[in-house]
Amino acid sequence: MPKLRRRFSLVEVLIITGVAAAFAAVAVVAANPAHQFNKAMEAQRLNLQRWSDVNAIADAVYQYANDKAAFPDTIAAAAGEICRTGAGDCSSLIDLSALTANGAYLVSMPVDPHCPAACAANGTGYTIVKDTDNDIVVTAPNAEFGATINTARRYGAQH
User: What is the pTM of this model?
Assistant: First the structure.
């Protein structure tokens, strides 16, 4: 009598393939939340940096206004992007070099983490405006998840 070789039937092969596919799907799903969590943590870190940056700029403007009894002349009633420290051409940007001269109020102007992609050629990615209430508002328009990051400083009628 010849020896019979045991072979897998088509049904058995299909069952094994299905189980392997199910394990692969579970592995992909299990790994994805970790990736999403890491992306969320990175976005939070970037937004915290932006909060710090807009507050540093607003504080520097506030200190300048207290020392000079006036805002830097370049801050206007229309919002504009702030120029980088040491930029050669700030003609279309808000030049706040008075704040960084000799490191008096800031050592250098903070720059948004998404620059240069999300900024003007010599821009920082942050905007500044003097509103009708004499408030200075500094904004980070490129924040993650569409968040609005801005801070305002009010100096009163004497400025």
Answer: 0.74
